Amino acid sequence: MCRLNFNSFVLLYLIQSTFICADESKVIKYQTAQQWAEKFGVDLWSLGEFITRKNDVVQSFKQAQIVNRSGSVIVEEIAKEIKKMMDARISAIKRIVDTAQEVGSISASNDEVVEKNFTYYNSKQMIEPSEVSLNESPITSDGEENLDKLELPKPVIYLTESEKFSDYVNLSLSSVHVPTNVYDRAKNVIKAIKWSEVLDNIFDSNYKRDPSLFWQFFCSSTGFMRQFPATKWKFDPVDLYDCRIRHWYIAAANSPKDMIILIDNSGSMTGQKKDIARHIVENILDTLTPNDFVNIFTFSDLIRDVVDCFGDTLVQANSANIRAMKESLHNIETNELANFSAALTRAFDTLSNYRHTGANCNQAIMLISDGLPISVDDVFEIYNWGEKPNIPVRVFTYLIGREVPDVKNIKDMACNNRGFYVHINTLAEVREQVLEYIPVMARPLVLNRTHHPIVWSHIYADVVDTQLTDYEWECRERASQRDRFMAYRKTRTFQGLPDDPSTLGYDFIENDESELTKKFNFMTTVAIPIYDKRENATRIANLLGVAGTDIPINDIKRMMQPFLLGVGAYAFIVDNNGHILTHPDFRPVFYKDILKPAYDSVDMIDVELVDDDREPRDYDPILIELREQIINQSTGSKTLLQKFHFDKMRRVSRTKRHYYWTGINDTPFTLVITLPEEYGKYRLQTRSEDEIHRDTAKGTNVLNFFNGSNWKIHPDWLYCKHNNESFSSPEAELIYFLERMRQPGWRWPLNRSPPTPEHMSNVYTNITAGRFLSDKDSYYCDRNLMQSLVYDAKVTEWFSRNTSSGLNDNGSEFKQRFGVSVSFLATHSGLLRWQDYNQMGEEIRPENEFSETNKRAIDETWYKRAVEQHFIEPNSFVYSVPFDAANKNDTLVTATHAVFHRDNTRFAPAAVVGFQFQLTAMQGLFKNITNGCTEPSCVSCMHDSFECFLLDDNGYVIVSNIDFADTGRFFGEVRGSAMRRMIDEGIYQAVTVYDYQAICFINKDSSSLASKLITPFIYIWKLFKIIASHMIWLYVSLLVENVSGYGSYSYDGANYDNVDYYPPDPTEREPVSKTKEQEFDRRVLINRTRPERCDKVFTLYQMLRPKEKEKSPFDLPMSQCNRPYIAIPIPNSNMLLYVGDAMCFRHEENIPLLNQPVEKDYNETLHCMKSRKAPQYRRQLKHCFSNNSNEAQIEICGKANKFHLSLYTLILAVFVAIKSFIY
């Protein structure tokens, strides 16, 4: 080993110090970096000005008129329009109700027997002509005793594709859906199916009067649903749909209720009884709405809360709380004897405490047990019979088991307390028996006979079963697991395996509304109950069913006049529970197309984030006060500082907003609009001399303003809409109306929405009566929007002209040098114009990819950012690149600039101009500028010791001279230490944002299976799992043995150059160690998880621009390692030039600074935390029917088990059983 003497050591030290000092003396001067920034900014600004013809656009809007934007007037106007649209839907339903009550009551009064060969359009069995079978006649078995097994031919129906309904439909007929657990040939069912055929005439006439109507339907209390237009029913894997457990049906059939569910968990409630009890409770919970309140207790010798944190309270029956209760049902254990008196006492005490604060209407106790050995009348004497005949709490009892020696006590408990008793033996009959309580709760409503409450549902997705989130997620996990296995088998390496879906971050954040509508149609439903109006119907209080129609949320959004609100403003609707019906930050799906748990119960305070420093769920009192005023449907206004995220939660902005709200009369909804203070005060309005009819009178053909094909209009806005015509595109519909406007006799419709159909008082005797829409009523328009659109088209018509012939040499050089691909113009009226260019600078017309993805004008992110940038630096462009730019070879930079029209002190955004060009061209320009120096001794970004970046205003890398892979990434991930220093100096400011709609993934607890029912099926299931696990182990063992080595264990030959190494004999196989087996499992197997709602916290960043005459960190020079960087804003842009000394940062540990969302740990479950801290204020509904003196005449209070077991029912039961094993 060599040794250095002291003199040699000193010499080496001095030499090294000399080099270090020499390197440290090399710094990039502030003046040099400033020159780079100015040169770069000026070049890009000149390019943008020329390509977009910005100055010409400014001149085009010079004659536009600026008017005040009054938030209070706008909110009243929008609410009025939405009310008109909703009244039209209600009018249509009332016609269905009138007819159904007349026909249904007449049918119920006779004993007509439906003929055996009666057929109807069963939505699950009807076929199209191409599917017609050869057998056209009914098939029967021999003998009259088998007539019930009559097999009728499937009805043939003609269906046509409908873009509106997103399905194949028949617009002249309705079809009938029958749930799996309902026998369609039962006497009461088939009879109701037959008499309800008369509703086809009403459906059809309603649709002709108002073609904007969506699905119309009648849900019978017998279980079937008649739906118009007719369509084939799709279900996978089995049909779980039952209209009687949809929220709109429950809300129409029952007034709001407080409910306590008591589950007997004594020692006798084991085996199948326990499983049946759990399914009874789950089905009861499915019948509750957000206007109901509920809790569950188990009782044996002790009374326990199913959800510990709910305690002795009643919680709102929203989907989040219901999900928590269902999960907790799996943890119930049985022991000891049942103390019914103690359980009922606690239930009555809890209900008594909430008699005026919960639903404030009906109250009920649901008791599930396998028998009541003794009477507990003494409890009812104290709590429920003290003010007879008034009995405040109804009691419903569910007796489980076949061999029950005495049913009297448990049946009397229900009969003596205005309830109902059922006896359940099998899983298959649970749902039908549970639903028996609904018509009992509906008795006061039906006996009223005259009042038909109009109810509205909360927002929901139009899917067969909204509770299949866990199932769909498990399918997605299985598909991912399969892909990982296949990838491993193909490569024999662990590298490059597909990601575990539960570990992804931003990929779960979906805020693109166009993506949401690909699979789901979100809507609200308005419904009205239908009564049996026979004179002798008092003794049965028969609810015939519920009629309703769906209103797509997109239809409501179109009524919100986004054009009138303007860029950066938005409207949303809140219901009586504080939940949003629509909001721009409503994010109901994750992983592209899976509904989030509890997506339908997002509170308004979870999406309106106040700009403060409070901890999560510590809401600002001003926001809570605002929420209460909005829920109460008062009319008012308020100003708040708000922070909001955008661009898939990667960017943040802060602004002051003005809120205006007013109630939508006779609905539970309140409309709210918010306007940004900086640019929401004024808007552009067309002058009277520039209106369409004035141009036409002058002989101007307004169609000439829309020449060519390089233009589009906002696809979601309502310009003019025809009720009876369909068009290939919004642009085609616009051209149709512009041509009509040129014709004599054109009149603007009075409304922006369809006219309200006249409601006939006696529709049954005048089925075909009524006023159908005339030609002038067959369309409706937004006059102001149309006028603005045509004016914008007129003043910007020049933008679409060919510009190649007019280019000078400088212009052609610009386009070729920067690889400009498109220039565009978007106006406040939703008009988009663009020009495409090829590499030689000539206009071309290819498939317009840009126009298809950027056609939403003021709703586009680049439009909003340009308008906000105007107030930071008016003469600037906003530059951005995709976040995944590093993964693309042809990445384009998007640059946008806002054009404001000014009139003295008033100003309003008129348009945004922009262009796209090659990122490689920007990189080339950046390197050319930063690699050059004016002084001989200066240092540039070419030096290995320095690194230069272009960052945007939110800290994302646009250009890097180090690694192209950094493009689009957050700078904190690339250079964590440098980003922290800039934050400390105030160059960037951290803004904490909370995501209250986030999804987290909880590992499935395999031990929870032990708490499940021990039945013969469990033993079979366990045996199957043992056999399967051994087979998988054998397969994996063979697979691993055939692999010569794992990729992760492959050696690097360079490390073994000095080691004697003898390759193994290829004929010998090394035994697989346990360590490798475990490593294989860990790397290939994904985590089996369950998605749950959670809160996430993430920190985003904004560049801080100093005020005039304020000392700025942007003015500080580089000072070796004390301040090893220079940060200078690029003029005329949203970008920052960062020049850093890489040598200084190499001595520091580079810990990345991430802006990924992180789960907030509350040390308790989210539903428990929200039950303590979330605002509980809500507005109770107006209608409440809890008592009627005639109810005493009804003697029916119980039902023994009588169930028609069908093949479908058996399949459903098996599916439910299997599902319980899986979950």
From TrEMBL:
Q: Which Pfam families match?
A: VGCC_alpha2 (PF08473), VWA_2 (PF13519), VWA_N (PF08399)
Q: How does it sit in the membrane?
A: Single-pass type I membrane protein
A GO MF label:
voltage-gated calcium channel activity
The protein's location, in the record's own words, is: Membrane
Q: Where is the signal peptide?
A: 1-22
Please provide one cellular component term from the Gene Ontology annotations of this protein.
voltage-gated calcium channel complex
Say where the protein is mainly found. Answer: membrane
Which InterPro entries does the record associate with it?
Answer: Ca_channel_alpha-2/delta, VDCC_a2/dsu, VWA_N, VWF_A, vWFA_dom_sf
Q: Which PROSITE patterns does the record match to this protein? A: VWFA
Where the record annotates domain VWFA, the positions are 258-445
For this UniProt record, the keywords arranged alphabetically read as follows: Calcium, Calcium channel, Calcium transport, Disulfide bond, Glycoprotein, Ion channel, Ion transport, Membrane, Metal-binding, Signal, Transmembrane, Transmembrane helix, Transport, Voltage-gated channel
Do the record's keywords include Transmembrane helix?
yes
Q: What is the top-level taxon of the source organism?
A: Eukaryota
Name of this protein: VWFA domain-containing protein
Its organism's taxonomic lineage begins at: Eukaryota, Metazoa, Ecdysozoa, Arthropoda, Hexapoda
